[in-house]
């Protein structure tokens, strides 16, 4: 359904230019959930904005190819993209309070999508808006239609955004860290809601997050980004069972698990995302990597099939990857229990 090839986004020009996304390629099939994972600043959100055509018209350069159902999105006019957005492509933004209009009732904002893309009259659109709010789990939807965003809780605002995104039954949904500002209980409810809606409608989903715990219970395929490039791609279970890139291993090691002994210290990835070197000079992750060898700062690693061949279509960008020790089925299931929904079963 969606094919991204060599997508690159550069901000600024000349010596002061900065490449936020550098040659990202991936595919999304109908009904599939693909994850884009990485720390803040790795290029996840910029990738999604480039796909949706929402980057500012000035101050940036977007190259590569993004095809949706065989049509090139990057060459479409602004008017053509407006017709696509909301109808075929939809996006859930990270902060619902800043994404919703604070002076317009929720019902009007949801109904506006239906009026714009389905040609519905105001009355029927309001009725369908109430149906959508009920579908995403907002209680007393008829009353909520008249309320403003500040009158809703954080979880309800996020649900309202999801209702707007799904109102026209889009074929592709991009969720940009939709649970970041929510507590773990509401987070689990939102993730369960997204999973259910995608399964029911067959919508393809791109899940953007920095939390591998979110990925554990939702994504089919995972792309790990670092400094604008994909450093590892694998199926969810393969990735959690045997991470190969040191960055992926570091992200997994920093997640607390209910099965581990109490009081055990986490092992975070050292340094910050700013501690890197240009990809043209070597591996950008080398300054933070415990597996660094001489070649890491001399030659840029390519994204190629993993030599260990641990899973179908598994790709890796690393000169000295972690050793592979695939877990058995029981251990693999336990590793995937980092899903945030586990917080509902065990308050500890």
From TrEMBL:
GO CC entries: plasma membrane
Keywords: ATP-binding, Cell membrane, Membrane, Nucleotide-binding, Transport
Alphabetized InterPro entries for the sequence: AAA+_ATPase, ABC_Ni/Peptide_Import, ABC_transporter-like_ATP-bd, ABC_transporter-like_CS, Oligopep_ABC_C, P-loop_NTPase
GO biological process, one term: peptide transport
Subcellular location: Cell membrane
Keyword flag ATP-binding: yes
Keyword Cytoplasm: no
SUPFAM superfamilies per the UniProt record, alphabetical: P-loop containing nucleoside triphosphate hydrolases
Pfam family, one: oligo_HPY
Gene Ontology MF: a single term: ATP binding
Protein name: ABC transporter ATP-binding protein
């Amino acid at each position: 359904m969606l094919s991204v090839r060599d997508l690159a986004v550069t901000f600024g020009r000349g010596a002061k230019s900065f490449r936020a996304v550098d040659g990202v390629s991936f595919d999304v099939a109908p009904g599939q959930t693909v994850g884009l994972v990485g720390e803040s600043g790795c290029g996840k959100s910029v990738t999604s904005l480039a796909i949706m055509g929402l980057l500012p018209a000035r101050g940036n350069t977007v190259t590569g190819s993004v095809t949706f159902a065989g049509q090139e999105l990057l060459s479409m006019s602004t008017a053509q993209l407006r017709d696509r957005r909301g109808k075929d492509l939809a996006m859930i933004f990270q902060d619902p309070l800043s994404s919703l209009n604070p002076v317009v009732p929720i019902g009007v904002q949801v109904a506006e999508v239906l009026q714009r893309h389905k040609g519905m009259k105001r009355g029927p659109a309001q009725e369908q808006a109430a149906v959508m709010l009920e579908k995403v789990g907002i209680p007393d939807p008829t009353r909520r239609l008249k309320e403003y965003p500040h009158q809703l809780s954080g979880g309800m605002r996020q649900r309202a955004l999801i209702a707007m995104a799904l109102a026209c039954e889009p074929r592709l949904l991009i969720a940009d860290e939709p649970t970041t500002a929510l507590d773990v209980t509401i987070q689990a409810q939102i993730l369960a809601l997204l999973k259910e809606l995608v399964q029911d409608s067959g919508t393809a989903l791109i899940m953007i997050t920095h939390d591998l715990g979110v990925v554990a219970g939702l994504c089919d395929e995972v792309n790990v980004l670092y400094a604008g490039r994909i450093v590892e791609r694998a199926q969810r279970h393969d990735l959690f069972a045997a991470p190969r890139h040191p960055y992926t291993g570091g992200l997994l090691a920093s997640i607390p698990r209910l099965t581990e002994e109490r009081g055990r210290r986490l092992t975070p990835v050292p340094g910050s995302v700013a501690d890197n070197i240009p990809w043209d000079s070597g591996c950008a992750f080398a300054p933070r990597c415990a597996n660094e060898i001489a070649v890491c700062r001399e030659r840029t690693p390519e994204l190629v099939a993993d030599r260990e061949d641990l899973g179908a279509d598994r790709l890796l960008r690393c000169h000295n990857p972690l050793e592979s020790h695939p877990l058995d089925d029981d251990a693999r299931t336990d590793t995937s229990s980092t899903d945030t929904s586990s917080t509902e079963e065990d308050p500890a």
